[in-house]
Each structure stands twice: as structure tokens, then as C-alpha cells.
Design brief:
- This protein has two domains: 9-104 and 213-291, 3-Layer(aba) Sandwich (Rossmann fold), CATH 3.40.50.150; 127-210, DNA polymerase, domain 1 (Orthogonal Bundle), CATH 1.10.150.
- Helices cover 42% and strands 14% of the residues.
- It has helices at 9-16, 33-42, 57-62, 80-87, 103-107, 133-139, 142-151, 158-171, 177-187, 200-210, 213-223, 241-257, 272-277; strands spanning 24-26, 48-52, 70-74, 92-98, 228-238, 260-262, 285-291.
- Strands 3-2-1-4-5-7-6 form a seven-stranded mixed sheet, sandwiched between helices.
- Helix 7 packs across helix 10 and helix 8 (158-171) crosses helix 9.
- The structure holds S-adenosylmethionine (SAM).
Length: 296
Amino acid sequence: MNGHDPVLLDEVLEGLAPATGEHLLDLTLGRGGHARRILEATAPDGRLTGVDRDPQAHAWSADELPGDRIELIHGNFGDLPDLRQRIGSGTWDLVLADLGVSSPQIDEGDRGFSFRFDGPLDMRMDPTRGETAAQLVASSTEEQLQNLIGQLGEDRHARKIAAAIVRARAVEPITTTARLASVIRDAVPVARGNHLDAATRTFQALRISVNGELEALQHLLDRIGNLLSPAGRLAIISYHSLEDRKVKERFRTLAREGDHQLLTTRPVRPSDQEIRRNPRSRSARMRIIQRLGGSA
Ligand SMILES: C[S@@+](CC[C@H](N)C(=O)[O-])C[C@H]1O[C@@H](n2cnc3c(N)ncnc32)[C@H](O)[C@@H]1O
């Protein structure tokens, strides 16, 4: 998730096996860390279509990528008909989706993703549209908050946290990351030996909900076959068990239907060494599928 340290980079290169002249569709360009290495492997004439719903991603990645071989597009893979109008109706040899947020998104306090920095409670990957986390926190019922934090955050303290949020917002609307984090920390007992900040899971749940991440993934999975060329490979890196389950089920169905084969039967996980170097990689799971046909 860091431009200089893309998650599962060696495994992506090995699994997708990019070859000279192949075209890549990177649906989650971020800082272009994976894309840059894949472009090196497809040189001299392999091309990249790089998509990200965050308009800033293009600024982060453009300097890293060879300008004459790339096309960068602002769009959401959860709205493929709209995206198709800009990426065209073709197919790609290589497709990559490295889900979730990027390090620059987390590390810029004013984007509102992180409880480590104070900022407006926003969390939209695409700040040009949609509801912010502050609006979600203000408009949800206690039960909705509890379900969200329990299901998307997998937090066993969901009930307590939801109740604390509802009490706090009755005093004053919760509009900053620091205030939300302090409400959560006050509500949850600190477990000995637990290195996770008490706010981590609630922030994750709000982010997934604000950005409709599970819905976007499902939309993509339902239409994925149309993006791959014959013998094309598709890798998806997910960071949440609910995402990985969706990918696993859809890939199995595609393989059963006979047009695709699984290149991974189990999810590929980061090595201990990678997790030590980049703790944000710890929950990553990658699965790869190949469309049949062509010469491969
Ligand atoms: C984990 S980062 C990708 C990092 C990238 N692989 C790299 O090496 O720099 C995920 C990126 O995907 C983008 N993203 C997440 N969901 C998206 C969606 N539905 N459509 C388009 N981009 C999305 C985010 O804005 C973020 O920049």
C-alpha cells in the first residue's frame, strides 16, 4: 500500500507473469508502485491503462511512469459502464486490483482516514462525490452503527462503541477524526497485550461503508470476464475477509463455468519479512485467475 513498497510485489510479478508488449489495466493505480514494475516487464511497448477513483492518485503516480506508454483515468471500478466510456471497450492481457486505501491517503490528515492525525472526518477516496464519514456518523441510527462496526469492523465492542457515539453526538456533532477516536477509546477497555488502537476497526468500517467498497468489488467481479483478453490474467489483492470471500467465490464460479482457470487455489499471503517491513500488508490476500484461450 506504499508506493515504494507495493504489497506482494514479487508475488504479483510471478503470478501475473507480464511479458513484452502486454497491456495492463490497473484498476487501483494508487502511487503506481505495481504498475511501474509491470511496465518495466512489458517494455518496450506494453501499455498501461491506470484507473483510480482518487483524482490525486494521478499526481502521485504520473512522475513514476513512462508518459508515452500510459493513460491515466479518474474513475470507479464499481461503475464499469461509466468507466468503459473512458477506458474503451477493449480487453487487457493483465488486470490488477489492489483494493483498499493507499498510504498517501492514510498519511494525509486532511483526508480524514486516520485516527493518528486530526482532520475532518471525511474518508472519501473520491472527495468530489458522496457522503462523508461525518455525515454517516450523524445520520445512522445506533443499531445501524452497531451493525456496521460489528460486520465491517469485526469489532466485538461494536455495541459499546455505537452507544458512545450516539451519546457524544447528542452533545456536539462528531466532525473530526480526533474526536471520534477519543470517543471510541473512552468507550472501550484497553486490553493488555493488544497493540491495535481501539479506534482501528471502527475507522475501517466507516471507510468501507463511505466508499461502498464491498459493493464496488461485487460489481467488478460480476463483470470481470469482459475485461480480460484470451489467456489474460487478473490478480485481486484484498485486505478484508469479506472481500476475500467474494473473490474466492466468484473465481471458483468462473473456473467451474469453464472459461477461466484458477492460478491460485489458496490465497497468496505476504511473507513474515514483508509484514515486518510493511505492517500494513499483514491482512493482504491475493488470488489470480486466467481466462482460457489464446496461445498460453
Ligand atoms: C492499495 S492502493 C493501490 C496501491 C498501488 N497498487 C500501488 O502500488 O501504488 C488502492 C487504491 O485504489 C483506489 N481505489 C479503491 N477503490 C477503488 C475503486 N472502486 N475504483 C477505483 N479506484 C479505487 C484508491 O483510491 C487507492 O488509491
